[in-house]
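so my prof wants the structure for this chain in the tokens format not the other one, which i didnt know existed until like an hour ago. anyway here's the sequence
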Amino acid sequence: MKKKLLSVFALATSMFALNEATAQNRYLDEVFTSVNKSSNVVYDTNYAINLLFGNPNPQIPALFTSSPVWSENLKCDIYSPEGDTLQNRPVIILSHTGSYLPPLVNKQTTGSKDDSSIVELAHRFAKRGYVVVAMNYRLGWNPAATSQEVATEQLIKATYRALQDMRNCVRFMRRNAATYGIDQTKIIFGGQGTGGYIALAGATVSERADIESNLKFLRGDATPMVSVDTLGDWTGIGGVIPYNDPADASVSSDVNMYFNFGGAMGDTAWMKASSKPMVAMHTTRDPFAPYNTGNVIVPTTGLTVIPNASGAGDVIPKANELGVNSKLNSYIYLDPMSERAYTVTGGINNLFGFETSFPFEGSPWEWWDRPSMQAKQSVLYRDAIPLPANGFTADTLSIKTNPFMSAERGKAYIDTIAGYVAPRIAVQMDLMGNMAINDFALTSPQAGASIDIQDDSTAFMVAKWEGAEGLDYVFMIDNVNGDFSDPLFATSISSDSIAFTESTIWGLLTTMGYNVDDEVSLKWTVMSKNASFGKLASQAFAINLTKRAAVGINEANYNKYITLYPNPATSTVKVGLDANAKITDIQIIDILGRQVKSYAGFNTNSQEISLSGIGSGAYFINISTQNGGTATKKFIIQ
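here's what i got, hopefully its the right format
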């Protein structure tokens, strides 16, 4: 379902307030109050670009400067809920931002697993009952390169190495599942900013051609910038030393689901029906990664390093269309974060476009202590060498695109990110517990039923469906080609059936402009709901309704059966009589009783007339019938 039931959402979330469950649910809510953390756990060792290579500073030992690569211990922090007795828990792996360079060196205030946003998000998910891994990955490229081809190659290789590191972090968690108490079948990866590039590549890159045949990532001589034979594949298998230390192919690196906040996808051609489910959050005016599709540019040089990269605004609609997110889309999300997201995206599920108060803001979830940041003059590299870095410059540049930065604001965004992602993880990973809603079917009126409707307050049309204890429902009617995103009629009910007087259905059809003996095809469905989720019936039923006139109507009662559509009207109005009598004459009377227009010579139950030359205001339409009856109805001309 591409669209959310926008007009139904408020109805679904506002009705039955007293019936909503108040209990906290693991994986959806923060059910733990504190978190344990294991710091600097080495998950892999691999060859990394040496930023000190060739440095002439005599105070740096030659051991650190003589080789273009070095063997780096890749570290992560592992968070878990304190006091948790469950040992088979899903795991979320988080990757930070930073443009593949150390913090401050990248002229940013962020760039490691210790970033405030990553630490805060890790705590939010661990308190919900997840094991959370905040991972570092290999860094290194030259953002000052003046050749576009060179810059692109260095950046794509940096992303590729980080993609391999993510896979090896997954392997580490699987090998140590018993130690950390994780469920190996439920692994989720999330990336922020630069980490978002890793997440989107991880969800979609799945074959050699994605890497070596993509025109964006070929050199001028048509050779691939990334050679799988040399660097290994996207899962870390293969390659040659000193470019890759091959991973253990016997341990799966598969990830079940991905999410990102910020970042972009190198090429949406990577996406296939077999890609992994993905949820994305992105500021709509991100100056660094396009929200839709556009070029990724290095701010310091102005070079385009990734042409036509795609952000969340284009990636998620395509994922939904391909069926990648079919399980995620089997539910309707009734939480406040989803409600806000739907209003921004026009009802697209699994996409949250953040509309920030500053026009060039990419990471409103980041924050840092400005005085301490400004005082920094170096960053420790390779755990031993102070690398010169200007904290004042990093602070100045970062605040330009995050001018309202504060811990309170950043945490509010992190709260929204966790609140938006958590219910979708619960759906995809079958973690909903008692909030899960079983599939259900409509029963009657059956698909294809033909029903005659009379203006009768004592006759009823009854709709029934398969119900379940503890659920509420929203009943909806829409046009036969509608998608229930803006239904013709919707109402909430707490039982598995609903009864309407035929006069109610008659009024609905009249409002739609239908007259006696007009058959209209509509369809109906039901959404079942609890406190957090909704689900539509397995199939909507199309039915055929026909207004039928009552027999033997007294002339004095014709006023009840005159219909006008539209009302208010502009250039024309359609006059109808839902009775066994034909219209012969029509007059338009103003509120002072003066006739302003008349029409004659009809013999019909329905007639459209022109309002040309009549000014705006309130009027009455009088009709006469072939049997001498009359009727009057008030209407408005705009």
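also thought this was worth mentioning. DSSP finds 13 helices and 29 strands in the chain.
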